[in-house]
């Protein structure tokens, strides 16, 4: 058999699990390895280095890493037989939380690198080559990480931009405060420099990322007086960048939804009318046990306040069913809250017991079959709301940012302000532009529309 790597430079295959922050980190890892001569491989078979950028949030995601490692071991062994090698790196949150376990369960892994230490991958690669053993780096060094990353290369008209990492909230179900560390905000100047560079490369929409993105806070930019800035001020400032036409941010926490941010949502047109604001559950007893720091009423009132300021805002949320102690009555309160709010989209999960979190040690764990039953009920309601929201757009005109070609000839796929996929017949030259589209129908996962006559050249 011929080796698919013949006659090629070095290459890296990255598999990304989990959230958008990992997607961002994977892009930065590719950027870090580029100066070392690494191109991107499409499969592990054609790579010299495989990076698994992992997620620890639920048990299933974490276990998947070990099954993927098992498959990589086979490739590595067969390479070793012919005197060659495949280097394997485990990055991300499983690396942070289970570094020692990875070393024990998969000793053939060469590098284990946490989410705040991946800027040191080039050094670790050199060490792994020298020592031919396993090297581990799970320090928390966020500031240094961002300083050490190279300039970004944009890939298309939309981009993620991490502005904040970590979490100090300690919800009792969640591993994030342990895997990503304490809340850290990047400076205004660093964020603006990255956003400007993206805009100069044709990026028209940025999504600001953070585990608690609306907890972002920093001093005003160099040379400007005044108090600490919050996310609202940052968004208004970014909105001044020419060429950047859409700004989004995710994920927000209800407790950090301050007046400045709500006012920015109301007044800044470049801020898209879509807000991901997880509530997790609708019962005050469960919210308290989760250590969310707010009640269901506080959340619903907050939504009312935001809607009063920006009436067209679409809401998205995260939900957990089957947190310890959740009865059918508590679950009913979640359904009531969903009915009261009305979501355009949502993510919902069965509670997963995560080692080391307070929830894992709680009494009254909920049986799996009850979790499954409640999840199915909740998802049916959320799906009904999603479909209703999409159907409401039929007959409306929405601006669409065209991101990529569709599967059909002459079709482009873009996003509405509400983050819906929109399929349109349009020339390829319109990729990267924003144009008004008449919405004519809905498909299971998207809207179908036509370009509005005479407005092609937006
Ligand atoms: N079990 C199930 N879902 C979880 N999430 C976080 N931790 C857990 C867990 N232990 C969900 C929350 C969070 C989203 C990112 O993942 O809903 O908002
Ligand atoms: Fe996890 Fe809660 Fe922090 Fe979100 S706010 S990252 S759910 S601990």
UniProtKB/TrEMBL annotation:
Where does the TRAM domain lie? 391-453
The EC number of this protein is 2.8.4.3
Entry-linked HAMAP family: tRNA_metthiotr_MiaB (MF_01864)
Xref: InterPro entries: Elp3/MiaA/NifB-like_rSAM, Methylthiotransferase, Methylthiotransferase_CS, Methylthiotransferase_N, Methylthiotransferase_N_sf, MiaB_methiolase, rSAM, rSAM_horseshoe
Q: How the cofactor binds, per note? A: Binds 2 [4Fe-4S] clusters. One cluster is coordinated with 3 cysteines and an exchangeable S-adenosyl-L-methionine.
- Quote the function comment for this protein: Catalyzes the methylthiolation of N6-(dimethylallyl)adenosine (i(6)A), leading to the formation of 2-methylthio-N6-(dimethylallyl)adenosine (ms(2)i(6)A) at position 37 in tRNAs that read codons beginning with uridine.
- Highest taxon in the source lineage: Bacteria
Record organism: Hyphococcus lacteus
UniProt name for this protein = tRNA-2-methylthio-N(6)-dimethylallyladenosine synthase
- One function term, GO molecular function aspect: tRNA-2-methylthio-N(6)-dimethylallyladenosine(37) synthase activity
**Binding annotation for [4Fe-4S] cluster 1:** 19, 55, 93
Q: Which SMART domains match?
A: Elp3
In terms of SUPFAM superfamilies, this protein maps to: Radical SAM enzymes
Q: Which residues form the Radical SAM core domain?
A: 153-392
Give the MTTase N-terminal domain ranges: 10-130
Family named by the database record: Belongs to the methylthiotransferase family. MiaB subfamily.
User: One Pfam family of this protein, by short name?
Assistant: TRAM
Subcellular location as annotated: Cytoplasm
Q: Which PROSITE patterns match?
A: MTTASE_N (PS51449), MTTASE_RADICAL (PS01278), RADICAL_SAM (PS51918), TRAM (PS50926)
Q: Write out the entry's keywords from A to Z.
A: 4Fe-4S, Cytoplasm, Iron, Iron-sulfur, Metal-binding, S-adenosyl-L-methionine, Transferase, tRNA processing
């Amino acid at each position: 058999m011929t080796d698919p790597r013949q006659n090629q430079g070095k290459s890296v295959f990255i598999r990304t699990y989990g959230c958008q922050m990992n997607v961002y980190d994977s892009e930065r890892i590719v950027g870090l390895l580029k100066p070392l001569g690494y191109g991107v491989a499409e499969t592990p078979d054609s790579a010299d280095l495989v990076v698994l950028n992992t997620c620890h949030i639920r048990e299933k995601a974490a276990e998947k890493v070990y099954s993927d490692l098992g498959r990589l071991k086979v490739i590595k062994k067969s390479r070793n037989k012919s005197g060659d090698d495949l280097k394997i790196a485990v990055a991300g949150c499983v690396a942070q939380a289970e570094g020692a376990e990875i070393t024990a369960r998969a000793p053939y892994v060469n590098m284990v690198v946490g989410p705040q230490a991946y800027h040191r991958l080039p050094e670790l690669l050199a060490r792994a080559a020298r020592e031919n053993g396993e090297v581990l780096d799970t320090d928390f060094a966020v500031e240094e990480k961002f300083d050490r990353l190279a300039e970004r290369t944009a890939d298309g008209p939309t981009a993620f931009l991490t502005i904040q990492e970590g979490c100090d909230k300690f919800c009792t179900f969640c591993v994030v405060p342990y895997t990503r560390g304490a809340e850290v905000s990047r400076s205004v100047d660093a964020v603006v420099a990255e956003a400007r560079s993206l805009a100069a490369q044709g990026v028209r929409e940025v999504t600001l990322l953070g585990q608690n993105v609306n907890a972002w806070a920093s001093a005003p930019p160099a040379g400007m007086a005044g108090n600490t800035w919050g996310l609202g001020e940052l968004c208004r400032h970014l909105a001044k960048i020419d060429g950047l036409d859409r700004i989004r941010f995710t994920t927000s926490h209800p407790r950090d939804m301050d007046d400045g941010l709500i006012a920015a949502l109301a007044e800044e047109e470049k801020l898209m009318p879509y807000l991901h604001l997880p509530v997790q559950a609708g019962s005050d007893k469960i919210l308290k046990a989760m250590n969310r720091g707010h009640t269901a009423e506080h959340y619903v009132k907050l939504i009312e306040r935001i809607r009063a300021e920006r009436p067209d805002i679409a809401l998205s949320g995260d939900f957990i069913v089957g947190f310890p102690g959740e009865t059918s009555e508590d679950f009913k309160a979640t359904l009531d809250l969903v009915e009261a709010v009305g979501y355009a989209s949502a993510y919902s999960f069965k509670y997963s017991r995560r080692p080391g979190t307070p929830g894992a040690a709680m009494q009254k764990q909920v049986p799996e079959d009850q979790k499954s039953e409640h999840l199915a009920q909740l998802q049916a309601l959320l799906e009904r709301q999603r479909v209703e929201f999409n159907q409401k757009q039929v007959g409306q005109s929405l601006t669409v940012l065209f991101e990529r070609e569709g599967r059909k000839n002459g079709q482009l796929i873009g996003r509405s302000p509400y983050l819906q996929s929109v399929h349109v017949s349009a020339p390829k030259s319109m990729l990267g532009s924003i144009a008004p589209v008449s919405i004519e129908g809905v498909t299971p996962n998207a809207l179908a529309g036509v370009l509005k006559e005479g407005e092609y050249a937006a």
